[in-house]
Amino acid sequence: MYRGLLGAILVNIMRISLILFSILLFLPVARSHGQTAMMDAYLSSVMVHGYKANGGLAYGSGVVVDHNQVLTNCHTFRETAKAWVSRGDESYRILSVKADPWHDLCLLETDGLNVKPARIGKNDALTKSQNVISIGHSSGVPIPLTSNGTIKALYHMDHGKVIRTNARFTLGASGSGLFDTEGNLIGINTFKTGGRDAYYYAVPIEWLKELRTQHVETHLPVTGKAFWEETDPIAIPYFLQIANPKLNENWIELEKISSRWVEAESNNSDAWYEYGLANEMLGHLDRAEEAYRRSIELDDRNTDALFRTGLIAASKGDQHAAYAISMKLHQINKNLAAEYRKALDCLPNC
After folding, report:
1. Considering all CA atoms of the chain, what is the largest pairwise distance in Å, rounded to the nearest integer?
2. Mind listing the pLDDT tens digit for each residue in 186-200?
3. Measured distance CA(99)–CA(75) in Å, rounded
4. pLDDT digits (tens, 9 = 90+) for 238-281
5. Global pTM?
6. 171, 139 in Cβ contact below 8 A?
7. Gap between the Cα atoms of 239 and 279, Å rounded
8. CA 149 and chain centroid, separation
9. Distance between CA atoms of 274 and 295, rounded to whole angstroms?
10. What CATH architecture applies to the domain 229-346?
């Protein structure tokens, strides 16, 4: 009896330790931006499980977004007809599902899940280089893990912005929450590229509003291809087409894709930035500068285009233009401005 009791105590101590360790990973952010809000965000994370037809177990993550409602990725339910939600040792049945397979979002209705919902944010005010926190069950661990990062890019799509970050997540974290440093849920971590320096993508929380209007589905599995799984070259979003060329530094291919992008979406600031980057890396500086200027005209807070324009100006000896961009970056993001000044000091050797 005592041995069993001692074992239970030790297990609980380990669980508490894991929770404290995970919280400590982002405590500096939490301390400056509201420890309570970040704790609520952390506690809104749940696991989603399902049995596959072959008897194997599928699993992912989810976020409580309303009373007895969990938001997660639909691709978690591709191969399972029996699924449930868990939090710690407790399991909760899924009563119904609202599915938007193309956007890869499923809203689960559960029973008895007494968890405070995450605070829903907005991503229309997000900026590049902004700090974010990913909270989910990477590798299927029962205790949520956190990963700090920054926003690397924002891509307009269907009345929202797909978010690319460097906040890492692994298998099991599909459907987990991406939060700002105020504890607001701004996206759902959904997919990533391969490789060591992978790109990590979250779909916008704005898509939840449309998902709520979908008809209830009570049958699993959920079928239907997600946008990021598209293989038709014509249908693949341009921001996904450029990912591998950029990761592999294939500037010729990036120039080809971004050239088509600016032709198809001439008012897209990101498209012009990518076109400028490809040309800069290929040594076509005049063409690159022109593309960067166009990018900034369309979005004067496009920090990538500002950053590269400033470096080119400095390399040409135009210190006035380089300084003006330094001030602009400082107004947008102080950390990025510091990175920019460091890059200026490094010229022309880096």
Report:
1. 79
2. 999 999 998 888 999
3. 10
4. 999 999 999 999 999 999 999 999 999 999 999 999 999 999 99
5. 0.86
6. yes
7. 17
8. 9
9. 9
10. Alpha Horseshoe (1.25)
**Pseudo-torsion of CA 294, 298, 302, 304, nearest 10°?**
-20
Q: Identify the residue whose tokens are 């700002």.
A: 180
Q: Is the dihedral of CA 255, 163, 48, 89 positive or negative?
A: positive
Q: Find tokens 């938007």 and name the residue.
A: 100
CA dihedral 69, 71, 76, 80 (to 10 degrees): 20
For 8, residues 6+ apart whose C-beta sits below 8 A from its C-beta are none
In the chain, where the domains are located: 229-346
What are the C-alpha distances in Å from 136 to residues 40, 43, 281, 295? 13, 10, 37, 35
Look at residues 348, 304, 314, 306 and name the one whose alpha carbon lies nearest to residue 129. 304
The CB density around residue 180, as the number of other CB atoms within 10 Å, is 25
Q: Which residue has the tokens 């920054």?
A: 150
Q: Is 124 exposed, middle or buried (0-12, 13-18, 19+ CB in 10 A)?
A: exposed
Task: Tell me the DSSP string of 216-252.
Answer: EE--SS-----GGG---TTTS-HHHHTHHHHHTT-HH
